[in-house]
């Protein structure tokens, strides 16, 4: 059970609550120094309990107050310092953003990814904002050291579309179609089917 984008306090609570993995997202802290110090603390506390830690350098852009921010590029030197703390995975900005990408998105920065990989060595890198990144860019990112890809919005969209279809076809009005388990079923199945497709594209089938 993994906590995604936790604050320092969230991580401590989740470690106490029995999570097996936490992401401390210190990229929004006032300074990099605070991110570094708090990541070090979380690593110490989590590792004593056998819990893995994902850290973040260089914020992942996305929609804030209705405005889509461009993706940030993480500083390889900062990535190196965070990696040296013994984190288990590192999320780093390489132009990726959460949510649907804007029409004029510049794409992932492979130069940045290569420089970060060079700085952190074997540490597995995490690509956030997986929704809508073209498959060729995803596969290139994997070849350059990305080991985990987070996809959320894509799955929410297929769930919503399947649920809308069920309701708009009036199926909730037929027999016991109003049963919440029936209403949710098409969306659930749509998520499973899309997750399978993504796993095939990412080459992660049978690797967990
Ligand atoms: P998307 O919603 O853009 O796929 O991003 C998911 C994510 O990175 C969660 O941490």
Written description of the protein model:
The strands form two sheets. Strands 1-2-3-6-7-8 form a six-stranded parallel β-sheet. The chain folds into two domains: 2-150, Aldolase class I (TIM Barrel, Alpha-Beta Barrel); 152-208, no CATH class. The longest helix is centred in the C-terminal third of the chain and has 23 residues, at 180-202. It is 45% helix and 14% strand. Helix 1 (8-17) packs parallel to helix 2 (32-48) and helix 3 (76-83) packs parallel to helix 4. It has seven helices and eight strands. The radius of gyration is 19 Å and the shape is globular. It has 208 residues and is an alpha/beta fold. It has helices at residues 8-17, 32-48, 76-83, 110-120, 135-143, 153-168, 180-202, and strands at residues 2-6, 21-24, 52-57, 63-64, 67-68, 89-92, 125-127, 146-149. It starts with a strand and ends in a 6-residue tail after the last helix. Strand 1 (2-6), helix 1 and strand 2 form a beta-alpha-beta unit. 1,3-dihydroxyacetonephosphate is lined by residues 4-5, 98-99, 128-131, 150-154.
Strand content: 5-15%
User: If strands are numbered along the chain, what order do they take across the biggest sheet?
Assistant: 1-2-3-6-7-8
List of distinct ligands in this structure: 1,3-dihydroxyacetonephosphate
Distance between the termini: 14 Å
- How many distinct folded domains? 2
Low-confidence runs: none
Q: SSE string, helix = H, strand = E?
A: EHEHEEEHEHEHEHH
| CATH architecture annotation name of the largest domain | Alpha-Beta Barrel
Q: What is the 3D shape?
A: globular
Given helix and strand content, the structural type is alpha/beta
Number of helices: 7
